[in-house]
Each structure stands twice: as C-alpha cells, then as structure tokens.
Amino acid sequence: MADIMFNVALGAEGSGWATNDIRTLLLSAKEADDAIRDHDTVNALLLAAGNTEFATATSYARVALTGEARTVDDTNNRVDHNADDADYGNIGNGANETCVAIVVYRHVTNDSDSIPISKHDISFTTDGSQVIIQWHTDGIWRATG
Q: What is the extent of the structural domain holding 52?
C-alpha cells in the first residue's frame, strides 16, 4: 500500500492547488504503483486494464475538494498541500463496492484533459454509511526540493 504522485504531476501541480478545480474519484481495482503513475489523464488511467472506478455502489459520485491550501515550509524545504476531508455522503446499501484507492486529480473539462495528481491506497466496503476520506494531518501530498 502506498501513496504516489503521478509522473505528469511531478513539479507541475502545486502552483494551482488553491485555484484549480481539484476533485477525487474512488477505485475498486488498480494497477501496481509503477504502472498507474504513468497515466497522463484521468481518461488514460480509467481505460488502462486493471483500473476500475466505482461503478455499482449506490449513490456514488466524484467529489470536488474544498478548502485547498498550500503551506510553504522554508525551514524544512517543502510545500504541503491539503484540503478539507472528502465527504462522499452515504454510499452503498443497495449495491456495495470495495474501495482500494482514492485518486486526486485536477479537473479541466472532462476526463480526457483532467490531470491525475496523486493516488492513495485505502480499504473499505460501502454499506450505506457516510464515507468521509480523512486526509493525513501533514496534508494530501508534499513537494520537496
């Protein structure tokens, strides 16, 4: 289990973190980290064999993040990127799915031009309860130099 940055986002996505339309999607199946990180668009990610977005879970919809913020830490030479927790509402209870990862991406117009930023391994099965993805206290991702 790992958190990874997509290669296309390395060094490029931080500057627009607080102003771009940042969203999340849930995966019920995923490729290995070394393969998944090579996809340059959300469309390419979802068309690749092995990656499956939630398809059957009752009431599932992608979530737009709110409260995006960047914190520059000059002492430790890094920038932390954070946002409010992702609230998916109540998912499942009619049809349920098991989640294996959440993908954070910059939405542009559609999946064909939207840029995947990071993937975070998680594990839960929907049952009709509220699903809130709680980010790590250090943030969603960190840029270092």
A: 3-144
Of 20, 137, 116, which Cα lies nearest the Cα of 71?
137
Q: What is the pLDDT of residue 12?
A: 66
SS (H, E, C) the chain: CCEEECHHHCCCCHHHCCCCEEEEEEEEECCCHHHHCCCCCHHHHHHCCCCEECCCCCCCCCEECCCCEEEEECCCCEEEEECCCEEEEECCCCCCCEEEEEEEEEECCCCCCCEEEEEEEEEEECCCCEEEECCCCCCCEEEEC
Q: Cα separation of 103 and 59, whole Å?
A: 18
- CA 19/CA 8 separation, integer angstroms: 19
Predicted structure pTM score: 0.93
If one counts the domains in the chain, the total is 1
pLDDT along the chain (145 residues), means of 10: 78 74 96 95 96 92 94 89 95 92 96 95 95 92 81
